[in-house]
Amino acid sequence: MLKFVTVSRQPPHRRAAETRRQDFDEIYDPFQDAEAGSQASRCSQCGVPFCQSGCPIDNNIPDWLRLAAEGRLKDAYEVSAATSTMPEICGRICPQDRLCEGSCVIEQSGHGTVTIGAVEQYITETAFKEGWVREVRPAREREESVGIIGSGPAGLTAAEKLRERGYKVTVYDRADRPGGLLTYGIPGFKLEKPIVMRRVERLERGGVKFETGCDVGGSVKFSDIRARHDAILIATGVYQARDLSVPGVGSDGVVPALDYLTASNRIGFGDKVADFDSGKLNAAGKHVVVIGGGDTAMDCVRTAIRQDALSVSCVYRRDRMNMPGSAREVANAEEEGITFEWLSSPLAVLSEGNDVSGLKVQRMRLGAPGPDGRQGIEAIDGATGTLKAGLVIKALGFEPEDLPTLFGLPELKVSRWGTIRVNPSTYETNEPGVYAAGDIMRGASLVVWGIHDGLKAAEGIHAQLSARATPAQKTRSHEEAVA
């Protein structure tokens, strides 16, 4: 260990931009054994591990880095898996530059952060290859059942942890495949879909039931689902796109980001997608403009370039330093040929007939900081521009659906933003036996925060159902634990 002085930071090899923009394969080559061990050995094993405190799920990062450096990979996997239900996914898609790696002590000292995410991915991929990833097998079966609505990171995490404790778990999802945004929202060049399906299949083999195509609040009543189970976890995520309020936004060729990404991911699965075939959700041969500055916007621009768009631009109202998306993703996008229109805000969608032909933008400048310390923006008088566009993608973020109305729960308490209110200790809502986790509870956020919430919600559900268990059940549970 402590080799950060003599061993330089070396991230995984990244495929050349001209090569990777031709396909949807992941752009980073995985670490080989020697690379992973060498990079893990750079950890300073500091007394106060800021990398761990910078991780939402409190991963024991220095411990599994040390074990990986020593070649004790099975032990490293056990430590990693003790706090995360999907470390190989977080290793791929977490914005480490804003979390663990950004908090690394040696990064602050100028030696370059440890490549934590790449080593995390390497450890778990090795575990799958070697057969160290065990099936979900509870020590005993319980009588209680839990229904989980939504199969994104929060729902899958809670399902795993509750099944490990022996609960009968059924996951309901309106889509035709589980995984939520992991499946349909994140492109394959960041997360190849067999990686997600492998986790789903492991849960299925462990006894978790999935009911896909189940539109709770639509064709299926929430009350019917609630009646089947002893507890319910709402983990639906937030899918309602924020809209753009400018003239011409209703023109053909203006589409929501999630519709666009879902169509692309379905094509990757080999599905037939009518709107893709018709060109509505296909960037091929078009000038594409994406409006937004988050990771979803980066996913859209990088997808469009792979669909053979004529040009791809990203319009964001602030500058590069104030962009909410991952700096790593911005750099990847620039390498792949995307143009960024910083300090630009949409004024109007231009059209020929009813077809999009361009986007008029207002040039902006940063103003004085607001109460939150973030600089405001203000328009520069007379400074406008026009971008050619045959496809405009709105990537302005997501908001919750009106679940109290949708689920027929008018008393369900929500915040002023529409997210579900929960007890922060138990994740239970004001409706007894109904819990919430993930984006529907905290607002659109990171996958790792969904995992965090799924872990906490599973703990809250288990605590309540255990407290309700009969004396005979408690005695049997104690005897089996002792045995």
Give your account of this protein's structure.
The chain has 20 helices and 15 strands. It has 483 residues and is an alpha/beta fold. It folds into 3 domains: 3-130, Fumarate Reductase Iron-sulfur Protein, Chain B, domain 2 (Orthogonal Bundle), CATH 1.10.1060.10; 145-238 and 400-482, FAD/NAD(P)-binding domain; 269-394, FAD/NAD(P)-binding domain (3-Layer(bba) Sandwich), CATH 3.50.50.60. Strand 11 (355-369) and strand 12 (375-388) form a beta hairpin. The protein starts with 16 loop residues before the first helix and ends with a helix.
Number of helices: 20
Structural class: alpha/beta
Oligomer type = single chain
Instruction: For the record, give the distance between the C-alpha atoms at the N and C termini, rounded to a whole number.
Output: 40 Å
CATH fold-level assignment of the largest domain: FAD/NAD(P)-binding domain
Mean pLDDT across all residues, rounded? 94
Poorly predicted segments: 478-483
- What is the total domain count? 3
The helix content is 25-40%
- Major beta sheet summary: 5 strands, parallel
Instruction: Give the percentage of residues in beta strands.
Output: 15-25%
